[in-house]
Amino acid sequence: MSYPSLIDFITPTGDTITLKGGLKFIGKVTKIAPRSFTIKNCDTTGFSVIKFSKKNIIKITTHYVPFFKHGDITPIPLVDTTKCFHIGIIPYLFLTRSSGIYLRYDLKKFALEYRPSYTYATNLEPQTMLPLLKYDNFYFQGINNSFIFYFPMIRKTQIGLVLSYKHWWHGKESIINDNSEISSKEEVVFFKEIRSTVMNGFGAGIEFTNYLTVYKNFDLNFFWGASFTYFNSYSNVYSMSYSNRFSGSYIPSTYPYNETKSRLCFNLTFGFKVGFKKPLKK
């Protein structure tokens, strides 16, 4: 199967770029980047290929179908440059079992969003043979505070740098202790303990967001991302609920006791944001 090339979307001649000051170039638009245009066969200058910064262009007429309507005499922005204040809800963050709200303010070269959210406990029991389901994460509920710095990519797609702080906890639960061993044997034994835990973590990641075309004051966009969170957890361990016994003796444990652990968690997430936006005065 073959796919159409860029040239298939461009007519042989007739694309025109007009710069500030009135200088005009005629040829074929062959590349559009977030901040620049490339045009071929510029017959007003003799250059075969020339690249223009978007900020220096005041008008463009092009047949470049993926980004422009035929015959337009003004450019369609590759990045949504309308500055707005945004507020709305995030009904559900898939894979991270959370819901939240968002407040966003568009600045000159980037946008800043504050996103508080709440993580639900699903009480899915840890699976000792699966590394991603090894810990007791699914017993936790908690509060997340995230700041996202969005930067333009192309059209209405943006990339964001995510910085977050998370405070999670769970009450008394029967949790597998995955750091225990049987004395004088190589096998790792997994036994359960009744414990309650609080943990705090700092995280970082990236997020991509795409704004959908909807009513002018209505906010709707789809986003997806990945992040890491480094947690410090503090547990009160009350007693052992049951144990796996092999030959040999258990590591001595005195109940109750306190335990401190560190863990690195990897998260993938995606969801929708729905809300309102108010254009800001220029």
- Cα gyration radius (Å): 28 Å
How many runs of DSSP E, i.e. beta strands? Answer: 13
Q: Which residues form runs of ≥5 with pLDDT under 50?
A: 1-12, 65-79, 181-188
Biggest sheet strand order reads: 6-7-8-9-10-11-12-13
Put simply, the count of helices is: 0
Q: Give the CA-based shape.
A: elongated
Biggest beta sheet summary: 8 strands, antiparallel, barrel
Kindly report the average pLDDT value.
78
Helicity, in percent?
Answer: under 10%
Structural class: mainly beta
Measured by DSSP, the beta-strand proportion falls in over 45%
End-to-end span in angstroms? Answer: 48 Å
Order of helices and strands: EEEEEEEEEEEEE
SSE inventory with pairings:
Layout lengths: L14 E5 L4 E10 L2 E5 L8 E5 L3 E5 L22 E10 L4 E9 L4 E9 L21 E14 L2 E21 L13 E21 L6 E25 L14 E23 L3
Antiparallel strand pairs: 1-2, 1-5, 2-3, 3-4, 6-7, 6-13, 7-8, 8-9, 9-10, 10-11, 11-12, 12-13
Q: Can you give a write-up of this model?
A:
The protein has strands at residues 15-19, 24-33, 36-40, 49-53, 57-61, 84-93, 98-106, 111-119, 141-154, 157-177, 191-211, 218-242, 257-279. 0% of the residues lie in helices and 57% in strands. The protein is built from no helices and 13 strands. The strands form 2 sheets. An 8-stranded antiparallel barrel has the order 6-7-8-9-10-11-12-13. With 282 residues, it is mainly beta.
